[in-house]
Structure formats: structure tokens, C-alpha cells
Amino acid sequence: MVFGIFKKKKKAVEDYLNDKNVLELTLNESKDCILDFTYNFIWQSNFDIKSEVFNGISYEKLVNHIKNPENVVYIKGDVGHRFCSSMGADLKYFGGSGGKIQTGTVIVDGNIDTRFGISMVSGTVYLNEKFSLKEPIGNIIEVESDISGYKKYISITELMESNSQEKVLKPNVFKNNELILNDNVIRDTIGARLENGSKITVNGNVDLSTGILMKNGTVLVNGNAGKNTGSVLRGGTVIINGNTGDFTASDMISGTIIIDGNAGKFLGSKKKNGVIYAKDGSAIPPLKKQSLNSKDKELLSKNGFFGEFVKF
């Protein structure tokens, strides 16, 4: 038997681009926040969305172009930090619904700096295999590519919520609506805006804002987590089998956070609702440590936790 006879043939990038509406950039130097749907969190910065990226093409024009799922942005040159940040988020700040939209495709012939794809919820990014990306990355995962000579990345949230036929690469596993990340890649914002109740397990450490804006689902981390774990959590469960950095559960709206370790300082800043369980942590008043009741103990035991926890 000839193995691989039915393997899908990859396209050349030229063939892929042949019938597409392509906006092309040539970058002589790396620039941050390209295709960043928040424009570097414009509500707390002075970012000029009209400023030029290349040859009369502004940051705003790039974002508007990629909002059409049929469109392509082709970048030749290195890109900086926060590339494709929140791509696919229909942000209320700009008059959007607060939900998600489908977005187009990005092709990069260059290196990608840190925080690529933080809180990204849709779209596809192809990276030329001759180049590399720096960790931490965002809410993205590599899947089997259909373009020759390019690696393919998609949003973890989109993978979990769509009926995607994308093939997750080993050692990661995607089966029965659960994603298990075994690749030891450090990621921010895992599970951002997840709504469909699926489960993501990370065997290793994570960095910033795990579960940010999640509404329904479970993110389980068998390792330590960075700052802002469970930030703006709207529902679902975030479990950290380790310690977290500071500002855990900042602006938390609903849901459950369980930390089998120290939850850090400034815990629950501007927390509105929801519950936090941890072995220890320093909360921001009026949030304070509370003893567990029978319902708390039952919830923890259902998740496999026993012993000394406190509630915030």
C-alpha cells in the first residue's frame, strides 16, 4: 500500500492568491499593532488609526480590509508585537455588537514578534516557513497547512466553536470538543471569548489573561499562569493547577476561578460577581477571604480538589 496517496495536495502561494482581493504591504522595518482590532487598546492610548503603515495604507484600512472574509493581506517583511490582536472581535467601542465576526486571511513573509494573536477569535494566518515567531503567542494554534512552504495558524476559540475540519498537529490533540495543548508553547489569552462550553487543557505554563472574556467553557492549566488570569471572565470555569501572577480575576463579571496555589496580589480588582477559590492570595478590598460552605466544598470536590482552600 502507498501511504499518503490520499493526502491533500498543497497549493502554491501564487495559485492561492490568484483570484483573491489582496492588499499587499512591504515593510522595511518591523511595526507593532498591525491588524490589531483594538489599535493598541485605543481607549487607553493615543494610537492614531489613520497613520500610515505603508504606501498610503493606514492601520484602519488594513483592519477594514480583513473584516471581509474573502480578502487577503499579504505582508512582506517583519511584523512587530500584538499582530492580529483581537482579530475577529466586533468591539462595542467602535460601534460593534460585542460578539465575533468572520475575517479574512493574512500571509506573512517575515518574522513575527511576541503577542501574535492575543484574543484572536477568527481568521487565518500563514507564515512562511523560512521565518519564525516569538513567544509568548496569543490565542492561536498551528494546524495542517494547505499552502506549500507556509505554516498555518488559526484562533483556538474559532477551532473550538466551529465545525472546522482543520487538523491539529501533534503533540496537541483535538477530540470530542476538547483541545489538549502539549506543545509547551507559552500562550496568552487562551480561550478568549469562548462561548460554547468546550474544554481546553494546557499541560504546561501559560502567560497573560487566560480565559479573558470567556462566557461558557473550561480552561484547565496544569502549570502556572501569568497576570490577569480570568480577567473580565463572563462565565465558565478557569482552573490553574499552580500559581498565578497578580491581578487575577480583574473586572470579573461571572464564572468560577480555581487556583490550586497562590493567586497573587491585587486579586479581584473591580470584580463584579463570580467566585474565586485559591490556596492563598491578597485581595483588593472590599473583596476578602471567606470560609468555605458546603456548596463550595461540593463544587471543589467535583473538580477534584480537596484540602485547604479559601473563597474570595
Automatic annotation (TrEMBL):
GO molecular-function terms, A-Z: formylmethanofuran dehydrogenase activity
Lineage top rank: taxon: Archaea
EC number(s) from the headed UniProt entry: 1.2.7.12
UniProt enzyme class: oxidoreductase
CDD domains linked: GXGXG
InterPro entries per UniProt: Glu_synth_asu_C_sf
Phosphoprotein among keywords: no
Alphabetic keyword roster: Oxidoreductase
Name of the featured protein: Formylmethanofuran dehydrogenase subunit C
Species of provenance: Methanococcus maripaludis
Organism classification: Archaea, Methanobacteriati, Methanobacteriota, Methanomada group, Methanococci
